[in-house]
Each structure stands twice: as C-alpha cells, then as structure tokens.
Amino acid sequence: MKRAILGVLAGALLGGVAQANDSVASLTADPASWPIQTGDYANTRYSELGEITKDNVGDLQVAWTFSTGVLRGHEGGPLVVDGVMYVHSPFPNKVFALDLNNDGKIIWTYEPKQDPDVIPVMCCDTVNRGPAYADGMIFLHQADTTVVALDAKTGEVKWSVVNGDPSKGETNTATVLPVKDKIIVGISGGEFGVNCHVTAYDMNTGEMLWRAHSQGPDSDILFDPETTTELGKPVGADSSLKTWEGDQWKIGGGCTWGWYSYDPETNLVYYGSGNPSTWNPSQRPGDNKWSMTIFARDADTGVAKWVYQMTPHDEWDYDGINEMILADIDVNGETRKVLVHFDRNGLGYTLDRVTGELLVAEKFDPVVNWTTGVDMDPSSETYGRPAVVTEYSTEAGGEDVNTTGICPAALGTKDQQPAAFSPQTGLFYVPTNHVCMDYEPFRVSYTAGQPYVGATLSMYPAPDSHGGMGNFIAWDAGKGEIVWSIPEEFSVWSGALATAGGVVFYGTLEGYLKAIDAETGEELYRFKTPSGIIGNVMTYEHGGKQYVAVYSGIGGWAGIGLAAGLVNPNDGLGAVGGYAALSDYTALGGSLTVFALPD
Amino acid sequence: MKQTFFGIAAAFAAAGIAAPAVAQDDNIAVAYEEDGKYYTANDIPTFNVGDDGTVDWYTFSGFRRYHSECHVCHGPDGEGSTYAPALKESAIDMDYYDFFDAVVNGIKRVDAADNQVMPAFGTNANVMCYLDDIYVYLKARGADAIPRGRPAKKEKKPEAFIEAENACMG
Questions:
Q1: H or E segment to which residue B73 belongs
Q2: pTM of the predicted model as reported, rounded to 2 decimal places
Q3: The CATH number of domain A5-596 is 2.140.10.10
C-alpha cells in the first residue's frame, strides 16, 4: 500500500530530520484538528477521519450553522484547534473564535480597523483565504497587508506588521504558512503593476527575516547564480533582469497570492508566482522571469533551490499561483517524491520536489488549445517550454487585434480553489473551469496605485462541449491522465476535501455541498447551502464525532464573471440570452454550514 | 449621412413633431456629429448605431476600455457583479457630469451594511483619456441599443480620436 504523505512527514519529524513547526506538525498529524488552511504542510487536503463513509454519507445532516454578517465572497475555510473553531470573513477580515464545547458560543471576535480605500484596489472582490494557527497564536494577513498575530485564547493582538502599501495597489487575499519560527506571506497586485514578493516574518516578534521578489536583480530575488537551478541547470547571473526590457521588471507583477506548501525533509517552501504586468504582452518583450514560475525556496534563508517557469512571456493572464501538492506517488513504475500543480494554463505538472526535474506536463482539460504541449526532451533547446499555437497567441495577433477561441480563459482551467490528494486512491481531485475566451491586448500607461491591465476579454463556456462552465475531475499525476470527469453547470470554485472514508467533498457556485465516491465519482449526497460556495471544504472531529464544514457566500472572480451570466460573442448577431446566470440560483451572504451524521 | 433610429428621432424632435417613444431620451438622441463623435442637443456625448448594427468608433473604444478598466469589479458588458452596480444602468440614470465626477473622484459608502468603494480614477490615463468612450458605450448598453458582447461592426477610427489619444496618453 502506498504510504500517505502525512505518515512520511510525521516519520521525518519523529526522526528529527527537520522541524517544521512542532505545534503545526503535531496538529496536522491529528485528524481531529485542522490548524492551517491547507489541512497539512503538503497541501493534500486529505483527512484520516473515516466515520463518514461512502455507505453512510447519504444520511449526512446539517449539525449547526453560523452567519458571518458579511456579504462579499467567502473563500478559505474554518480552522479547528483544541475544541475551538476559528471562522473568518472577507473585508473587514473578522475572525470569530467559537467554543465547540459550548454550542459554538463566541469566545472572542477580532475586527480590524482598515482604511476602506483598500477595497477598490483589490482585484476581483475582497476575499480572504483565512488565518493559520501555530504556537497558541492565530496569524491573519489582512486586506490592507497588515499581518497580525492574535492570542488564540483571547484574540488579543500580540504583534502586527505592515507587509505592503495599498496606495500602490499592494493588497492581500491569501492565507499565511507557519513554518518553524516563521510566518511565510505573499502579496497581491498583479493588475496594478506591483513588484511582488514573498516574505518571512519572525513568528514571535513580527520582525522581517527575509524577502524574495519574483523579478529583479539576484539580490532581490534571492537567487544564487551557481546553486539555484532550473530543470537541473544553474540559472546563472541576472536570470531575471535579462528577460525584461529596461526597468519594466520594477512594475512586473509576479504576484504571490496563492498557496504555500512545505516539506520538512527538504526544508523547502513551494509556491507559484502570478502574471507579469501588463496583460498586453507587446508592452513587455522577453520571458519576464520569474513570473509564472514554481519556486522551491529554503525556509530559513529564502534562497531559491530550484525554479521552473511554466508560461514564459505570458499572453493570457495564466497566473501560476495555484497550490503545490506534495505527495509520494508512482511515476513510470518508480515511487517519486513529487510536487503536483494544476496550473491556470491548463497543464497538470508533476515535478520531482527535491530536484525540480520535470516528470509530467499534460492537459487536465482536453479543450486546452493555446499550446500543443511541453517539450519534454532534456537535450532540446526548448526543453521545458510550452509550444505556443500561433492562432491563439495574443502576442502574434498583436495590439488592437482580437484573438478568439482561446482555451482556457484568463481565469484558467483552474484558479486558486485547491485540489485534494487521497493516498488511499492515489488520485488528485481537481475543481476546474471549462471556460474559453477572446482576448484583445492594447496600449496602457502605468500610474502607481491604478489598474494596469491593457487587454479586453470576453469569456464563454467551452464551445462544443457539455455547455457547462466547469468540471470536477480525478487525475492520475503519475501518468498525466484524467480518470473521470463530472460536468458542472458552473466553474467549480470550491476547494476539495478527500477523506479516509472514501468520500470526496466539494462545493458548487449554485451553493451545493456535494459528496462523491472517491473511486468512481458517483454522487452520494448533496445539500444546498444558503449561498454559492467559493470556500474550501474541511473536516474535523469533536467529541468523538466527525464533522464536515464549508463556507458559503458567493463572490470573488466567479461573482464578477458569472453573476449576470456569460454570452458567447461568436454565437453571432441575434443570439439571445446567454449562459446560465448565477443570479438565477443564489444570492449574497456569508455563512458556515457544518454537517454530521445523525446521532 | 447615415440615417439612424436616433437620428430620425432627433429629426422628429427638432421639427417639433411628436415622437413619444423618444420624448424621455434627450440624453440619448443624436443631435449632431463632429469628427466621428456624436452628441445630444445638450452637447453630451452619445452613441450612434447604424441600421446594420455598426457602432461609432467611440462606443467600440468604450467597449474595450470598459473591459480593461471597469470589468474586474462591474462585470462583463456593464451587467454588474455580486458587489458592484450595473454601470449600464448608471449611465442612463446618472447625469453625464455626475457620472464623470464619480469616475474622477470615486464614491465611498462604508457603514455597518455596506463596504462599497469606487476608487478615484482622476490620475489614470487609461480611464480618463477614454471616459467619454466608456460613457457612451455604457449608455448604448443601458438603452439596449447594442447587445452584450463585442460590437461586430464599427465605424473607422477617426483622425480626431488618434490625435486626442496621442496627446492624452503621452
């Protein structure tokens, strides 16, 4: 039987190979808890809890609910540690500590005072993907980029530090990752020309320990020209500067608003960088490194061990920020320590997480058409590069030309909504978008703190398919193949959960929590929650009983693009209506719904 | 000169002939054209849609700029999102000068029930150089003069537009 990654990591810890953060490591090893947003350091979103099985999940009931009182999009999910649940909201970024031993009574509430001017500089709604727990503290990265440490018992602020400047378009939507004595945080602002970075703060004092930008001189990006490698070769000096014209890297984007994973064995933190600014590729010649890149950085120093740029010189806004799932799986008959990443660009990547070797790069939606695939020949000059199809190249089309029929759309075959990995089945469960676009780039000028976009987009459901805008798929990352695929009316914008009970959970934009058979994908249960789900499903145990919890609260990118429905401009004049509008199914409102089996 | 529905309506109105369908449309009906840009009798910019659906250049330009600058909050085609209002309505409901003021200076409505903030775009050339374009595009959407999506046909880019764009964008 395959060993679960959790088991491997826990084993490494006990063996004293490295220390993650002791509290996080022991809590993630205990399936009753859910101390960080990703469930564990490896970002598997897998739980060993098995009370809820494929045989009894059909009996699931709502155990209790809680309203956050906030209307905007609710991403992320609740945490559970030591009988307390921590629930958060989008701006104004409230945190509630709920006493699970006292019927969810509120122990404390935190509500920061933030300048509302941050609201409109947040691209795509004021979502926040939640806090993290470590060492008796709750760490939250607010919209205005204030990173705050709260006493988990009282909600008292122990320290706070400012990570960016919202007046320049620097904001935050992401969670943080506690590693050892550090808090790792990213930043948003790719549509505002921010020069984005990842920063480590001292968990106990808030002191900045290191900061690594996505582009710029080697000293800014913390690269060692000799030891930092891409696809096995040292990157050399000025690897980023050489790929930008003049000073453009200073407003280069490469934002870091996604998920972070950590492997105590390699002591590496893994994450991806976003799109280069602007969306008009003609305005920024070059590969624009290291935007659209998978990074593996030393947790102590921030120095990059290896990198891999997935989409050189982006022409479609395919941010590379989606989660990096760490697992030990079979690739070509050999068990490999891999990193699996489902990119916005529609390719599912499997890399050796120790060396950065590229093992698999395959489309996880057959409609992906901007590339014919990645050059997998190590002796080739274009090794590791995707071959771009000219017909769908917005650079080849040029400024003021509308390039049509590009799949996927800018929101990607998958956005940030995280996938899950079950060591039981060896499969990855991936929420996806099934949307294509027309894309017309044009000239824009840069003003600090103002949007810096430079393209106009029309998005519509993938043509000649099932008509829906999403799929929920099971993926074999060793082979790079879809095992099964469930068509969905809307993009699946909810993070998945896999459990030892053989059940996989996810939410839909109409508001359904769905439970499916991890082997077959057969639907076993559904319940319509108060609003559309863009949050991530989690599970915990309390009083010997397994619970499943999810936020509802429609919003985010899905609430922008889909609220009024999409139309296909290529349907021709006279096409009436459009595709299903979310507003026909659901309305605003943030709440938590907790499920359990009947007593 | 191209005859248009609104052109005809304006002609009726000018001649003092009752045209009930457009009586309330003073802010929409084309009164005159100058270098490819259309105006109402009150000198307010407006759109022009030909019989075959051809839109004036400014409406097309507004479509592009809207979807670059406004779309990320206000949704595709001026339809609104889960949190930001449908601007195709605002362009009809609001006076041109109020619309202009909202874009230049922003709007803030923050209280217990609301977290609505529209930023000030006064310093943003990508918006300010094309504000009339965005306005007439949204007015065309709000008046149902053009369908959702990219206008299929457009008038030629006027020389005056090119000159103004170069001067404004620097």
A1: helix B71-74
A2: 0.91
A3: yes
